[in-house]
Write a structure and sequence with these properties.
- It is a single chain.
- The chain is of the alpha+beta class and 191 residues long.
- It has 2 domains: 2-99, no CATH class; 117-182, no CATH class.
- 44% of the residues lie in helices and 14% in strands.
- The protein is built from 7 helices and 8 strands; from the N terminus they run αββββαβαβββαααα.
- It has helices spanning 2-13, 49-66, 86-93, 120-134, 140-149, 156-159, 166-182; strands spanning 20-22, 30-32, 34-37, 40-43, 76-78, 96-98, 102-104, 107-109.
- A two-stranded antiparallel sheet has the order 1-2. Strands 3-4 form a two-stranded antiparallel sheet. Strands 5-6 form a two-stranded parallel sheet.
- Helix 1 runs antiparallel to helix 2 (49-66) and helix 5 (140-149) runs antiparallel to helix 7.
Length: 191
């Protein structure tokens, strides 16, 4: 991936691909051409036939040099803004068209910063875990351990990117309290 990253930097420096400019604290901002994560790659460029042709050549060179096969059937072109011929570009490139909002590595892309509905997936994971645990007899101390070790850690990945709204925090805490005090049942037990 180091070789591929160097290829991309050279192509951008040569003016064959354009990087995306992201505003930062400075007035100049930061130019991002690609992001790499394990075996996933995000490439930012203009939606033009020339740019995608250069990118496809770059991918072919990388395949030859690394002896790895790039699966374009799993790849997506995601448009930002209005792109007239996105379907034609995707067909020529050999991949499908995606849209925003989308998810990448389990995190929502292009989600509103303070959106509460983004957190529905985390709440659903809470409920799925609890559904497995409710079928078993677990002591109160065991429930507290499960809550601390598992449930309280589920939203941390999301919190690395998104701010946790207070309403979601209250809902998640209530789910944990219900499991600890009632075991998921509706009858009230003493605290």
């Amino acid at each position: 991936m180091e070789v591929f990253s160097c290829f991309l930097k050279r192509v951008v420096d040569g003016g064959f691909l354009s990087a995306c400019k992201v505003k930062g604290t400075s007035e100049e901002g930061v130019r991002i051409s690609h992001l790499l994560f394990v075996d996933d790659t995000l490439v930012f460029c203009q939606a033009s036939q020339d740019h995608l042709t250069y990118l496809s050549w770059l991918l072919m060179w990388f395949e030859v040099m690394s002896r790895l096969r790039i699966n374009l059937e799993k790849s997506e072109l995601i448009q930002i803004g209005r792109v007239e011929n996105i379907d034609d570009l995707a067909l020529d490139f050999g991949c499908r068209v995606g849209s925003l909002p989308s998810t990448y590595l389990g995190l929502p892309l292009s989600a509103p910063f303070k959106s509460v509905t983004v957190w529905d997936g985390v709440e659903e994971r809470f409920r799925r875990r609890l559904a497995m645990w409710k079928r078993q007899y677990i002591s109160k101390r065991g429930k507290a351990t499960l809550i601390r070790s598992t449930l309280s850690n589920l939203p941390i990945y999301f919190m690395s990117l998104l701010r946790l709204p207070s309403s979601v925090k209250r809902r998640l805490e209530q789910i944990q309290k219900d499991f600890l005090l009632r075991g998921g049942n509706l009858e009230q037990k003493p605290h």
